[in-house]
Amino acid sequence: MADTIRFLHRSRVALRTLLALLPLGMASTAHAGIDQSVEALVAPIADTVSSLIFFSVPLFGTELPLVVLWLVAGAVFSTLYFNFINVRGLRHALKLVRGDYACPKAKGEVSHFQALATAVSGTVGIGNIGGVAIAVSLGGPGVLFWMVLAGFLGMSTKFVECTLATHYRRQNADGSVSGGPMFYLNRGLAERGLPRLGRFMGGFYAVGIVIGCLGIGNMFQSNQAFVQFVNVTGGPEGSWFADKGWLFGLAMAALIGLVILGGIKSIARVTEKIVPFMAVLYCSMALLVIGMNAEAIPFAISAIFHGAFTPEGVAGGALGAIIIGFQRAVFSNEAGIGSAAIAHSAVRTRHPVTEGYVSLLEPFIDTIVICSLTGLVIVTTLYYEPGFAQGVGGIEMTSHAFERNVAWLPIPLSVAALLFAFSTAISWSYYGLKGWSYLFGESQLGRGLFKLLFCSFIVIGAMIQLRSMLSLSDALVFVICVPNILGIYLLAPVVKRELKRYHAKLRDGEIVDHREHREASPAVQREARTAGKSL
């Protein structure tokens, strides 16, 4: 009965949101050119913001964005400082995700698997389908090599930022938790005698994540989901929905509103079901296409490695491919941005390092697996149709590559795209909400206002064209890496200390592998209890 009442309450609030946004849709029907008007308004803003954030310096015939160099340096530092934790920690991460060391009495709101699913849903989005295709079209097949390398290095960055987020999280009066870069920047730097810098950087990050969530977290997702929806319902010329982005946005906003009203527990319950399904669906389709293009696989592998180290096919040569590959990887898995650490910090655990280990799996799934499969689909298609990528957008390019092999594949691809967009949006709503709450407090009214604002931007995103949307999303999400990477440098010794303590407890048997004990003989279990070890 209580669940029914809660559902009815959420439905009523979602309906209010829908009604509040309805005038926007009515206005769109009265003014057929509203999409172009919004694009004209946003494009100059996006261009200005992008030029500031992606300030570049000329190097060997290409332009090197300093923010990309900043992220790469942070990833390399994290990998070396923690002795390749991205390789050494994978096995332990898998054990944690399956619940071997789970402690139900620990503080937090979600399990390790739910935290990972929520974070993965925030990173595995439309960019995995459309963004990779754009990267290949700009930089050639060689960008895939650098994209995978960036994902590999980014696993170490995730380990550091998610450990810090869990270590410095705040326990709220209602039993919920709040964590993320804004908290570890503030509290962590205060511990190191830099309270003013910590407060400034925490506040800057919080403002950035709120603004960024309205770009990458919902507008870009709804924009590209709408593009794919139009493609499978008749195309820009034949679809009844072609000029009705506002209607698509309203429907998407209402569905997302139903989920995000319940907070992180509601989001986690949805993502732990959606993420495995959408990942398996998309990977299965990609593997099917790659298998049908088996003849082109040697060409694809050769083109990827050749393009990664030779100057052909991209301005600036191999360096240009490196820049595009690393930028697209970070846009996809957000390593160094710190956003996913907000979701990871909600985990139930007594040992913050455990969530650092779990977070290693996120870039692996997002970039090394899903982005690589998308890239192979695109490159193997180039073998048969070298010019197929000309004149089309990101997700349209991927859709064509699927359709070339199986005519009806764009339909399940559109389902996957919608799920990617939906799951990303609900996760980013939580990221933005925590930034909002950090700035304005945990009041119910404030949280409600933010959720209404977030849903409104979903509608706007479905009405904006790809160019300015991609540019604005990139810029808004990259700017917050500046304080986050600086925090990683300053607070890395804290993570190393916690890592040593954790492994000491593992060696001493203070932290018990519950799966091993459940599978052990009764005699072994009695011996463990006699020794005073908690099972």
From TrEMBL:
Pfam families: Na_Ala_symp. Residues 1-32 form the signal peptide. Residues 516-535 are annotated as: Disordered. One of its GO terms (cellular component) is plasma membrane. It is found in: Cell inner membrane; Cell membrane. It comes from the Bacteria. GO terms for molecular function: amino acid:sodium symporter activity. It is a multi-pass membrane protein. InterPro entries: Na/Ala_symport. Keywords: Cell inner membrane, Cell membrane, Membrane, Signal, Symport, Transmembrane, Transmembrane helix, Transport. The chain crosses the membrane at residues 64-85, 115-137, 143-160, 202-220, 245-262, 274-294, 300-326, 364-384, 407-431, 452-470, 476-495. Belongs to the alanine or glycine:cation symporter (AGCS) (TC 2.A.25) family. This is Alanine or glycine:cation symporter, AGCS family. It comes from Modicisalibacter muralis.
